[in-house]
Amino acid sequence: MRIIVFGATGMVGQGVLEACLRDAAVAEVLVIGRSPTGRTHPKLREVLHDDFTDFSPIQDQLAGYDACFFCLGVSALGMSEQAYRAITVDFTMAAARAVLAANPDLAFCYVSGAGTDGTGKTRMMWARVKGEVENALLALSPRAFMFRPAFILPLPGGKAKTTSYVLLYRVVTPLYPALRRLAPRYVTTSLLLGQAMIQSARGGGPRRVLETADINDLAEAGHAL
Fold first, then answer.
1. 70, 159, 150: which is closest to 109 by C-alpha?
2. Above 80 in pLDDT, residue 167?
3. N or C: which end of the chain has fewer CB within 10 A?
4. How confident is the model at residue 159, as a pLDDT?
5. Contact criterion met (CB below 8 Å) for 7 and 33
6. What domains sit in the chain, N to C, each tagged with a CATH number?
7. How buried is residue 58: exposed, middle or buried, by Cβ count under 10 Å (0-12/13-18/19+)?
């Protein structure tokens, strides 16, 4: 399996990339980003690209892949809807259209979030915008999968880019074992998320919109293979 990863330098993407590099079924990982990951691995190839609304300059490098794991995203905290939409909607859809144009049967796995609302009725701006993206992706490809994790524990040494998240994870990370026991349906790890994405790309997903419990179950199913 050959996989494209967007957002590999972020907290979520770091774990997803690690899951890909560890999996024997994954032969190659192409990371597309604005900055290098700092990783070296025989499977890993990186393409630096600045304009996430236009992938035509690297379109010829996108062919021949089986899946795309889109982990790029920002917190809506303190952002206007216009600015949040520019990243959440415009970047995601431009990437999806580019990789699907090169690979029509590709599995596109998108990291959304718990509480995303595709009805357009919610007052929460981020949930409404994420819902719009989900609906567009599901309509764009029959092999699009939405992942809605709640709390995600990053890889050891992984860092969030948002200050508020850095503080949150500093407090909550030591509590993860207890949280996993008390609320297993609401907590996961970035590594498990990546493993679940790989399983969806293989055709093992139970549905096209997956909540935290589905993510954990799918990752564990992959371990059993």
1. 70
2. no
3. C
4. 56
5. yes
6. 2-224 (3.40.50.720)
7. middle
